[in-house]
Design brief:
The structure is a single chain. By secondary structure, the chain is an alpha/beta fold. The chain has 2 domains: 250 residues, 3-Layer(aba) Sandwich (Peroxisomal Thiolase, Chain A, domain 1), CATH 3.40.47.10; 148 residues, Peroxisomal Thiolase, Chain A, domain 1 (3-Layer(aba) Sandwich). Helix content is 31%, strand content 19%. It is built from 12 helices and 15 strands. Strands 1, 2, 5, 6, 7, 8, 9, 10, 11, 14 and 15 form an 11-stranded mixed β-sheet that branches. Strands 3-4 form a two-stranded antiparallel ribbon. It has a two-stranded antiparallel sheet with strand order 12-13. Helix 10 links the parallel strand 10 and strand 11. Helix 6 packs across helix 12 and helix 9 packs across helix 10. It is globular, with a radius of gyration of 20 Å. It comes from Tichowtungia aerotolerans. One of its GO terms (molecular function) is 3-oxoacyl-[acyl-carrier-protein] synthase activity. It holds the Pfam family ketoacyl-synt. One of its GO terms (biological process) is fatty acid biosynthetic process. InterPro entries: Beta-ketoacyl_synthase, Ketoacyl_synth_C, Ketoacyl_synth_N, PKS_Beta-ketoAc_synthase_dom, Thiolase-like.
Length: 415
C-alpha cells in the first residue's frame, strides 16, 4: 500500500539492545567501526556443546534500566531485552508515557521463539523439587506473547496488541503491519519492535543439531560471521531487541517531534516448495515492496542485506538482487551488519531498520565486517571493512527465514 500524502509514516524514536552495544550511540559506533559483539557464550556452560560462540549481550541486567524491584527472574530473557529497547524508543520519541487520543495505543511485536529459558527453569524445578513447586508466572512468561503483555504494563495506557511470529523476518513483518495501520488511517502512532534470545541450552543445542550456525574455530569468535566472504562457514546466532515509534507525519510535527526516517512500504513472500532457485521469494518481496512504495529499482541508494554468513543464502540473495536491479545492481552498495551483530532471529530486521535510519542521519554506509576474501559469486559492492561517505536517501532492508519466508522494507530520508 502507498501512503497518501496526508498519511505519511515516519520514525520518531528508536531503541536498541544488541550484542555490540546497548543504545543508539554504542550501536552506531560498533557498526561503523566493525566492533563485533560475538564471543564465547557465558550464560551457561557450553563444555559439552559443539556450538560455543554467539552474539550474547554481556553483563545485561534489567535492574540497570528499571527499578531495582522489577523482578527480572519472572521474565524471559527476550522479554527483558524488549522492555529495555521499547523504553528507549519511547523516551527517544519524547513520549515518556504521554500518549494522546481516546483510542487505544497500537503495539506490534515480532518474535520468533518462545522463552526457552523459562521452560528450562520450570523443567529443572520439576526434576529437582517436584511438579508442585513450579511457579504460576512461568505459564505466561514462556509464551511468545509474553513480551507484549509486559510492554502493556510498561506503557501504562490502554493498548491494542498484535504479536507476529513469522520466523526471522518477524521484525520486518511487524514494521509492515504497523506501517499499514497508520497509512490506512487506523492509528496516528504505533510502537513496533521485535525481540529474541535463542541462547538457552535448548536453543543452542537445537540450532547446532540443525547444522545452521558455524562451529568453526578457523578464526577468532569475532571473525566467524563473514557475510559474502569466501571463507564463511555458517551463521552466528545472537540475541537482541529493537523498537521504533512510528507516527503519522503531520501528527508527529504537530506535537513537536523530529522525524528520523520515513517508511514507504513493505512486502513479504514465501518461497514456493517446488522452486529450483534459492530464496526466489526474495526477488518478489523486494519487487512488491518497491511497487508498494511507488518506486522503481533505479531510485534505491542502498540495500541492507539479510546476508548472515550462510554459505548458500548469501549467494542466493546476491542473485535475487541482480535479477531485480539488473546492471544497476553493480552500482548499489549492498552491505550486511551481521559480521558484528550475528543473527538475532526476529530482532534482525529491526537491527537493520535502525541501522538504515542511522546511515541516513550520518550519510555513511556501514561496512561489511570480516569481508577479507570476497566470494566470486558475491560480486556486488559489499563495502568491505571500512565505512563509506555516500548520499543515502532511499534504502531497502531484506530478511529471510529458514522456512522460506522473505520480507523487505523500503525506507527514505525525511524531506
Amino acid at each position: 500500500m502507498i501512503s497518501s500524502s496526508s498519511n505519511r509514516v515516519v520514525v520518531t524514536g528508536m531503541g536498541i539492545v544488541s550484542p555490540c552495544g546497548i543504545g543508539l550511540d554504542a550501536y552506531w559506533d560498533a557498526l561503523i567501526n566493525c566492533k563485533s559483539g560475538i564471543g564465547p557464550i557465558t550464560l551457561f556452560d557450553t563444555s559439552d556443546y559443539p556450538l560455543k560462540i554467539a552474539g550474547e549481550i554481556k553483563d545485561f541486567d534489567l535492574r540497570d534500566h528499571f527499578e531495582r524491584d522489577c523482578k527480572p527472574n519472572r521474565l524471559g530473557r527476550q522479554t527483558q531485552l524488549g522492555l529495555v529497547a521499547c523504553k528507549m524508543a519511547v523516551e527517544h520519541a519524547g513520549l515518556d508515557g504521554n500518549f494522546r487520543g481516546d483510542a487505544p495505543l497500537r503495539l506490534v511485536v515480532g518474535v520468533c521463539s518462545a522463552a526457552a529459558d523459562i521452560i528450562e527453569k520450570a523443567k529443572e524445578i520439576i526434576m529437582t523439587k517436584g511438579a508442585d513447586r513450579v511457579r504460576p508466572y512461568m505459564v505466561g512468561a514462556c509464551q511468545p506473547h509474553a513480551i507484549s503483555a509486559a510492554l502493556v504494563s510498561l506503557l501504562n495506557t490502554q493498548v491494542s496488541v498484535t504479536t507476529l511470529s513469522s520466523a526471522c523476518p518477524s521484525g520486518l513483518d511487524a514494521m509492515s503491519t504497523a506501517f499499514k495501520m497508520i497509512s490506512r488511517g487506523e492509528s496516528d502512532i504505533v510502537i513496533v519492535g521485535a525481540t529474541d534470545s535463542p541462547l538457552s541450552n535448548t536453543g543452542v543445542a537445537g540450532f547446532a543439531a540443525a547444522g545452521i550456525p558455524s562451529c568453526s574455530t578457523d578464526f577468532p569468535p569475532e571473525e566467524i560471521s563473514r557475510p559474502f566472504d569466501e571463507k564463511r562457514s555458517g551463521v552466528v546466532i545472537s540475541e537482541g531487541a529493537g523498537f521504533v515509534v512510528l507516527e503519522r507525519f503531520d501528527s508527529a510535527l504537530a506535537r513537536g517531534a523530529k522525524p528520523l526516517m520515513e517508511i514507504l512500504g513493505g512486502a513479504t513472500v514465501t518461497d514456493t516448495p517446488e522452486a529450483t532457485e534459492g530464496m526466489e521469494g526474495l526477488y518478489h518481496s523486494m519487487d512488491m515492496a518497491l511497487k508498494n512504495s511507488g518506486l522503481c529499482p533505479g531510485e534505491v541508494d542502498y540495500i541492507c542485506a539479510n546476508a548472515c554468513s550462510d554459505q548458500f543464502g548469501d549467494i542466493a540473495e546476491v542473485q535475487r538482487i541482480k535479477k531485480l536491479f539488473g546492471e544497476y545492481a553493480y552500482q548499489l552498495p549492498v552491505s550486511s551488519i551481521r559480521g558484528v551483530t550475528g543473527h538475532p532471529l526476529a530482532a534482525a530486521g529491526m537491527f537493520q531498520v535502525i541501522a538504515c535510519a542511522l546511515m541516513m542521519k550520518h550519510q555513511k554506509v556501514i561496512p561489511t565486517a570480516n569481508l577479507h576474501f570476497s566470494d566470486p559469486e558475491c560480486d556486488l559492492d559489499h563495502v568491505p571493512l571500512f565505512a563509506r561517505n555516500i548520499s543515502i536517501s532511499t534504502a531497502i532492508a531484506n530478511g529471510h527465514g529458514m522456512g522460506g519466508e522473505n520480507s523487505s522494507i523500503v525506507m527514505k530520508s525525511v524531506e
